[in-house]
Amino acid sequence: MIKVLIADDHAVVRRGLTQILTEDPEFTIQDEAANGQDALMKIRSNRYDILILDISMPEMGGLDVLYHIKKEFPELPVLVLSIYPEDQYAVRVLKDGASGYMNKEAAPDELIKAVKRIISGKKYISENLAEQLAFIIGNGEETILHEKLSDREYTVFSFIARGKVNKEIAEELNLSTKTISTYRTRILEKMNMNNNAQIISYAVREKLI
To answer: What is the mean pLDDT of residues 171-184?
Structure first.
């Protein structure tokens, strides 16, 4: 049996994933986690064959969870499942050690296919993601401005691009407004921009939102 840990802060999503996976007799949902801290605690206490991880969660986001997992449990395969399109996070999470990235709008049978592929020791990437990777290899990563950002900077960048102000972002990430302001400054410097309007314009142009 393939032992799965599902980490997502929405109960309805966890239930849906459970129903999809347990239709296949090879899978058993060993555990669920409603936030990042809970997921990490369970991984430190139990053995799983794969983690299905949401990016946006309270009490430690998915990118932070992935960082700790790859540092402490590098052999644990992770499939990142998110509402965000591949353009935003797919390449980033693969670089950070994830075994695959899938949008939550994907078909149920594609989820089963992805998990089985990852369990077999392979990576899961969609056709669209394969094209993105080919573009990066062919054109040089330095041509993609947002790839210069760290994971945390990119998370803040994404919130700014969606029109959030520093106070709102601080509440979402459980950080101080001053810390968010520092991240914003770094983002503007790295991307050679002057204000939030340029961030939003860039994100729209690059289809990141």
So the answer is: 91
